[in-house]
């Protein structure tokens, strides 16, 4: 069983070149699968077809290919290049590095299956009584004088059947959601998307959780708001309450933000902050009265950035601005979606999923959480456009401020 | 701008039907993209082509489609069905449920874009001065008398550009690795794969970490070995040492396996167990001498199941059977890969990645870990065939024993 | 600098024995810290005092201790026991296993600090020109003839200063929240607590998230309700909606619960289920009308178990029974807290934290989640009594049903 | 049943004051538990005793306390302060905020248990037919005219029995390992520890995993080495191989570090890099030959920083400098431990646990990982001194460089 790739390009349909080539293949008993079929829409763009061929033996394949060639079919029957190892434990420069998919090499007219299939090895080839054999060879097992495959010519890799899609390719790091990718690049990406959205007159929606305050990152978010990078804020009672607690009392959920230590009776601080705002009647009133002098909510009020604080059953208080009814809160959020080009979701599963529910898929969405599960939950609930960054909100916000020179 | 889907089936290439339809479309100024192109390999299987058409207006589209129809092209220009809501807050039965992709409806010859795009809503339609308009309508906003779309006819959904692949479809729960899927189904799946492998004369490789012992699940693994379901065991010093500790002293890393509490001086237990086996010279000798009377390693030795204990830098002791050199251990593992049909990787990132490195992609591989990160790491390192189960090893092993009636 | 532990017991205060011993120590220049001070409340119970002594040298210590002894002070000045290794790489049976805390041994009147401090080693002792020296010795470095410490006598371990509390002890597996502990033991523990609560006439509160349905575990929860083990249910729209979806349509968030595969148009199923219940007016009505024939909500209604469905901003629909206002929902939950003895929180961070907020600390609380972060969040918000199980809800519920023979 | 706290200070033992007070309490039928007992070691430091008293009624308690007072016992019988709410939904400023522990208030000689125990509420008090009653009152339920407790006077909080230790205190954020704490503070803390260690002539050990390279953070680690902040490096084959891959080919595990995208045939890059170093014979030789011009390993070699590359079974190649035998690698690591004052463990569970195994508890140890599980594993294996930072290595290293002005 040998396989080959056959390419056709040109005006294949009008002159029915494709039909004729397929007839030739059928006649020779060579099976084919279409791997690519790109029809040329205009006369100056050719139709391109790639076929994956399977023949019972190399001779049949060769004859069928030669017969196809008269119609302009392009194929390769190149053979592998072998290089002798010059020292123990070292592969020749340019060595072919294996995948874990079934692999054949083409050598002297033979198609030889590589034995002991294993990724990240060289391919060692030897002649055994006139028949070629090939095996994977881990680097440390190379011996001087071994003959090893170099380059890609003459190597045929067959993905597992379930992997036989157009885009099947062996690679590492294919998971979108991983804590091991360079985050800085993705934050730059988000910054560019924000700049582009602003240039196009679109708005930027920020959805945030209280960890932004707990982690000491609220000043960075406030900066983004003050500098005009954020147009709407969606959050809950907790983000606003701890932001105000931090401004009034220097703590977040009782943790001193300067030292990271627990503050005496600190667990009552957010309640005291909420209580004072309730007395004032609203966050805006409390700012007016001088009770709040900085932070995220202060930045929103001072710069006229609208916010929706949606309530939940775990709220203390809550702050007077919180919409406690979930369905009314959804409607309040809906009223702000139109015109949004970029949405940043930071450190909140509840509000991110709720916002994802009402966002068109065309909105560039970045979901930042220290837990990969949050990102997975978001896309599992239909917000497939979300690009996940598994990282600290503290890192994200400081880097984003730097990128935007905010 | 209106879009339509056109399907062609039959002997499209030999008679060049396809070429002729494409000529018609070009002549009418209708653009097309190939969405599916399945060439019939044998005369009894038709070639199937699906085209995504884009026309400047509905009239052009209609004319082009009618001209194509003479060549056997199938198309639909069905219109939406509207049903009046009979009560507030309730959609009509059979309502069309929206996605977050750009959506048009076809009504009275008009293609109308749905406004306020949002997933999980109905589509409300109204006539505004002779022009139809349509908007998403959340369930709670329905009012009796509203006219809403029912079914799929006449609704056109356009995935975001980057999503335009053949398999693009709006859905939930698309992540393979998620802690929210029914695990029992996947464990049944693994059990069936093991049974099938055994029937086909293939072998089952088990790769395990010490959490199997810590969690009290070693008896289940021992059972699988005793009943013949496991043919090879790959593990490290820790699994074997704690398995022997549990058998000798009733604890695992000092935690009493009957009570879950800490045992006095329990942190020395594994060292005492290792020390005794070192004195005996090997695990087999220790079993011979009656020092070990049960557990996973005992099951291996008594049933002749080969094991490779690969060392690592965090090993205490180690046990005399441990291969301390990583490269020699790799080679020892390689010697057992041939003929393996199913590989179970349970609660060990190190050994799972190491085994994945030397497994062909054709081996059915199940990776079980309580942490999604481990599964992501495995597939990020090239073992794409791995099916991840984010769950407890304790749950997996008890359920697997039950499924295999072991 | 040598340290010793001194114990006193008896009627130490009335006769001022303690004062006299402390005078002796002061007179000899030996410093002391109180490690334990248990005053006998009644005449038949002695007062017990443990002191940690520090003297500049062993001779001073010896003299002070002997002078104290006349008042009944108990002390030990036992020396280490040494045993010769009889073979390479193996410690003597009963070997002293080191911690990573500063360690001295007492030998021939000398207090010798152990060099190369490292956990999980033996202690090798040798005489170097009349002075004893001691070093940690990893197992593999033991040579036949080496002299090694056996047992605990004469070994003094000094925890790091910040660790000097009464309960400081070297051990493994000290984290309460870990995925590596035997879960089955903890589930048995929960089952016993439930049985005890029921016997004492207390009530059992169950707080659950939709993953219970997604994972196929709803039948187990329904069983617990039917068998009378659950007295109140707190949940959100999602658990109820997917439970009803599963009963009506066989899917949960569109995933077929029998096969684990995606169902065509499955993402609309929960909306259809919610819509039908909205038409019926309530879950109870829908059951009455025969629309729902099983599952968790059916069990509640049929067995008169009260439930509070608290709304959130990510709700679709919602179901008519959902209390959409968060503060009203809190109040509805509060109305059910009195008399609760055990609370099970399964697979929901939002509802668990909200319930934890209103529970007295005396309620036995078990928090089950596949993500350790959820448990950490709960205790970080004041619900310190919560016992965390990092595991699947599917495993927890099946095992709990088995334990309760439900 | 009423409780009170009694404090004694002075020369309690010599004059047996303590014994006399205890006699008085016994005589009145008041039970006591010692909460604190701090013996004054020197004549100028008093002995301090805190007792927790329980009497059957307030009158008994009062008499016993007055009788004790003649010996200098200090006690308080202050009563609660009540303030009227001046508006609905707002507590009086300075309100007492509840915990979830059993609580009594002392008012007009009565000790009244607070009903409906719940954290984060006020305490509302009313007179019901001459008997006082008290209940928790959530903020939103306050009505103008309600009388609420202000401050701490007269409020008695009884922790749950199992919580009755000296340090029991109600608080939030008590978990050491949490992703919600301010990381920047902890990184500053680590920077100060490093500076202090260097000033004291101690050495800094860095233990790192390959995610440092994957995340694009290798330049920051290289900077720390070049600037003299790191004295020893422990790592595996992967960190070194990908560091060299990044330097030679611009990728890490095939991911382009500038763009974050996959590189064509990138999965072979690390093998090519390893192979070239194997040909050179060592990393130092490869640098000498100009094959490597920057990065972490280059910084080590150029600045004479020793490194131990410990092998594992998942290694490709490996690099010639890797010690493939785990036990030999442990010994090589041991040889560098002496004199280490600070250890940074970044993004590697395997090497962190292995290093933790051989570190004295006195070494300041910081463990940085994006996964809380890694930190939990480390402390569960005995390295209790480790301070965990659940964050990105990228964030940690950039912030550490900034803190150290490196």
From TrEMBL, chains A, B, C, D:
Gene3D superfamilies: conserved putative lor/sdh protein from methanococcus maripaludis s2 domain (2.40.420.10), putative lor/sdh protein like domains (3.40.50.10690)
Broad enzyme group: lyase
Domain of life: Bacteria
Residue span(s) of domain Arginine dihydrolase ArgZ/ArgE-like C-terminal second subdomain: 190-400
Pfam families on file: ArgZ-like_C_1st (PF21571), ArgZ-like_C_2nd (PF21570), Saccharop_dh_N (PF04455)
Transmembrane intervals: none
Keywords: Lyase, NAD, Nucleotide-binding
Annotated LOR/SDH bifunctional enzyme conserved domain residues: 4-100
Ranges where the Arginine dihydrolase ArgZ/ArgE-like C-terminal first subdomain domain occurs: 103-187
EC nos: 4.3.1.12
GO MF annotations in UniProt: nucleotide binding; ornithine cyclodeaminase activity
Cofactor annotation: NAD(+)
NCBIfam families per UniProt: TIGR00300 family protein
Protein name according to UniProt: ornithine cyclodeaminase
The organism of origin for this protein: Fimbriimonas ginsengisoli Gsoil 348
Upper lineage: Bacteria, Bacillati, Armatimonadota, Fimbriimonadia, Fimbriimonadales
């Amino acid at each position: 069983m040998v396989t080959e790739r056959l390419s056709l390009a040109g005006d294949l349909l009008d002159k029915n070149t494709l039909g004729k080539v397929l007839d030739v293949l059928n006649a020779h008993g060579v099976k084919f699968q279409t791997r690519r079929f790109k029809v040329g829409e205009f006369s100056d763009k050719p139709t391109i077809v790639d076929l994956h061929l399977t023949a019972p033996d190399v001779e049949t394949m060769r004859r069928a290919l030669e017969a196809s060639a008269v119609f302009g079919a392009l194929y390769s029957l190149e053979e592998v290049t072998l290089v002798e190892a010059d020292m123990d434990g070292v592969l020749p420069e340019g060595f072919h590095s294996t995948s874990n998919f079934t692999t054949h090499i083409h050598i002297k007219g033979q198609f030889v299956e590589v034995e002991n299939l294993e990724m990240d090895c060289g391919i060692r080839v030897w002649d055994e009584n006139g028949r070629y054999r090939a095996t994977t060879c881990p680097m440390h097992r190379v011996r001087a004088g071994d003959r090893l495959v170099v380059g890609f010519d003459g190597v045929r890799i067959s993905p597992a059947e379930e992997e036989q899609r157009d885009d099947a390719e062996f690679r590492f790091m294919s998971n979108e959601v991983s804590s091991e990718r360079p985050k800085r690049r993705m934050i730059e990406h988000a910054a560019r998307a924000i700049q582009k959205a602003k240039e196009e007159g679109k708005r930027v929606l920020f959805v945030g959780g209280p960890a932004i305050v707990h982690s000491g990152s609220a000043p960075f978010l406030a900066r983004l708001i003050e500098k005009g990078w954020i147009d709407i804020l969606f959050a809950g009672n907790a983000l606003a309450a701890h932001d105000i607690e931090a401004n009034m009392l220097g703590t977040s959920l009782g943790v001193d933000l300067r030292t990271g230590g627990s503050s005496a009776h600190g667990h009552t601080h957010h309640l005291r902050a909420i209580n004072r705002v309730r007395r004032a009647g609203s966050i805006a009133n409390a700012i007016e009265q001088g009770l709040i002098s900085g932070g995220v909510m202060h930045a929103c009020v001072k710069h006229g950035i609208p916010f929706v604080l949606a309530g939940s059953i775990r709220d203390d208080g809550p702050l007077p601005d919180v919409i406690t009814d979930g369905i009314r809160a959804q409607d309040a959020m809906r009223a702000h979606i139109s015109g949004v080009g970029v949405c940043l979701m930071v450190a909140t599963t509840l509000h991110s999923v709720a916002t994802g529910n009402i966002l068109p898929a065309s909105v560039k969405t970045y979901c930042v959480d220290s837990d990969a599960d949050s990102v997975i939950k978001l896309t599992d609930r239909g917000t497939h456009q979300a690009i996940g960054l598994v990282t600290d909100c503290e890192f994200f916000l400081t880097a984003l401020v730097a990128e935007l020179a905010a």
